[in-house]
Amino acid sequence: MMVMRCCGCDRHVDRSPTLKALLAGSKLIAPRLCSSCLARFKMITGATCPGCGRSGDARICADCRQWEQQGRLLHNRALFVYDAAMKQWIYQYKGLGDYRLHDAFQDLIAAQLQNAGTLVAIPSESKHYDVRGFDPIQGLFGGLQLQPWLRKSPTAKPQAQKNRRERLQTPQSFTVLVPAAKLNQTKQITLVDDLYTTGRTLYHARDALVAAGFQGTVTAFTLIR
């Protein structure tokens, strides 16, 4: 039995793989949160919006109907609801730069991305990296092979400080760093990010890949919706 400490409360947590995980034959990533800490967060289950992954209804939500009018939906999946507990967690991780939390959900994330094609990380701006000292997406998804195919140009105002209208009006800021021939070595790209709010960032990333010549399918996965 492998016993380590929970990254949420520092209590002991059993990190031994389950029989189900062993039989699946996939890469094993052991839990980093104890059951009590994990229970603080509301996982998304049941019906979800097929566009953004919002919990509660299988119909396309009002936000995604607007995206649908502008083109194809991105089809995002997410693990957790953005409630008070998760808001506090993401603030501690990103806002306060508490890197100890980076692998809190890696076992759950890995299980969701078994057949997700090529994983492309949504990058941080260089100034945010300088402040935190780490890339939050690389941390969250660190147990997986991520392709650094996108670069994000600096923006005048951070997304977290913008209201909804300002987020939606944010201009394209992504540059694709690899040629079309490299992109098209895969048929499916899954963009990975921490939080889906308006969808503007993910749609910009998808549009940049398509404009660079990618001809396959682009979907998305976020920790939180």
TrEMBL record:
The UniProt entry, under InterPro entries, shows: ComF/GntX_DNA_util-trans, PRTase-like, PRTase_dom
Q: Which residues form a coiled coil?
A: none
The domain of life for this entry's organism is Bacteria
Q: Where is the signal peptide?
A: none
PANTHER family annotated for this entry?
DNA UTILIZATION PROTEIN YHGH
Family, per entry: Belongs to the ComF/GntX family.
What this protein is called in its record is Competence protein ComF
Protein's organism:
Lacticaseibacillus paracasei subsp. paracasei 8700:2
